[in-house]
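Support case: user asked for a sample of complex input and structure output to validate their parser. Sending the pair below.
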Amino acid sequence: MRARRVRRRLFRRAGIAATAALALALLAPIAITAAGAFSRAEWYGQRSEGSEVADTPALFRYVLGIWGGTLVRSGQVVAAVVPLALLIGAPAAWAFRRRPFPGSRLLESAALVPLAVPGVALGFSLIQAVEGVPRFWLLAAGHLAYTVPLVVRTVGNAVETLDPRIEAAARSLGAGPAETAARVTLPLLLPALILSALLVFAVSWGEFNVSFLLATPLLQTFPAALYSTYTTNSFPVAAAATLVFLAPVVPALIAIQALGGEEFHRGLPA
Amino acid sequence: MKVLVESLSFSYGREPVLSDVSLELPEGGITVVIGPSGSGKSTLLQLLAGLLHPGQGRILFDGEEVTGVPTERRDVGVVFQSYALFPHLSVRENIAFGLKTGRRRFSMRSSRRRPSRHTVEARVWDAAALLGLERLLDRRPSQLSGGEQQRVALARAVAPRPALLLLDEPLSALDARLRRAVRTELASLLRKLGITVFYVTHDQEEAMLLADHLVVLNEGRVVQAGLPLDLYRRPETPFVASFLGEANLVAVAVDGKGPERTALGNLVLPAGSRGWLLVRPEDVKEDPAGTEATVTDCRGMGAHDRVVLLLDGGAEVLAHFPPESAPAPGSKVRIGTRCRKPHFLKDSGAARTG
């Protein structure tokens, strides 16, 4: 009896220790990056253009100066991809669940395939397949391939939990299909729609593979610039750039968690 | 509104759900459709609502065909088993929903404008008062009990004053005690509204209490339709007999004339036929001149004693005796029927007995 209690306590302590180690492993790189951005370059024993930048505000100004353009570009891509992914994914998700047709399950699963295709392959095939499309839209298409499946999955699960009789009730009360969508279906799917928008934002903002392959000197996204920073600049500069990158992502991730990690997990392929 | 259903058929893929269903809903009356699960009764309701569309057949509202007309233009109100309230709206907004939609009826004759804000408020208040919901108007559906949700669903359906009210097992989600109370209220409310009602249930007591016109559905076909008591007393098939209450069905083959000797005594029966005698448990009584039987089980149910009897011929008979009067199990009693001419179900040879 006593031995069992001791063993249980031991297990619990081991569990806490393992969790703490995991959290440390995940958070340490961010902490080191933050430290790198806010401390003196000499602290790392490196001397490069970073040391010419005396204080931290100047360091960030320097980063924004050289990579500000790519930051704007990334913003433009995200601004195009988020609404498009929702416009394509949400109606598709609704149709898959509410108006299933022979093979619709298969098609829904097939929509997840891009998630498993290497970005390099996808980017290259996009260049090969389409001609005359502006590079910006090619880039957006590449991002959509990765983000639409997330929307289909997240919204699809929300549609599944929505009693179809609620929509039927709206129809019986005189609301046509458009009015039913506007007054009943969309408001009830709102949490899932916001959640997918945040997911799409996080994925598109950080997407590297396709973006790197499709990038031209004039069309570079911020993650691609981040790569160049790490290969060419000093660590403090790279660290500062990373923090700039993380600035909008962290609030988005917190919002996703607050909106229901539950729904997010159910939204992922099993 | 008078509703006519003409040889309606519906199937999910190759699975037939309804086959050749014809019926008439009398204007202003309550038509109850009763049947076991899978009999197609909910499908029939959805066809009337326009939520499904039939493979064959026609539906006429007051002589106008509405078969292809979408739900929102049919002027129907629906109460679902799950209530299907709008969870994001307050009770007030739920009830007002149907008053604010761009409802356009199928018929030009009865088309109407969207009511003013003042009218909407008055109508919401009327519907709420009718169902005793005045104090719950600002609540969300999730803050209501099952019985309250059921009343909101009903208020929401009747607020736009539809010509036809469809109810799909509206009480089956309530617990037994509440169901009994609500059942009686609902019956008087539906009578008060005076609109044509189509009510789906699998509960026999509910059907007997509510129906002006009762339709028994089994395996997608109308088995029998008529006045509730007629169906109870004079069912045409053993299925109807046993679905509407407990029934003793005694198989008999009649060949001669005059009183026939049966397991339940000498009875007058139509000659030259095979079939069953229907003896309801309440029609079995103790009779010193009757057939001898052995009591095998006896349960006091309160309102009556439920007695299982074994006849000498081996047939089992269920009887309802007056309360606290039944003999002990194992004892012998003599029984007979209350009437000399019990209902005789002719065996037409049809296999559709369920």
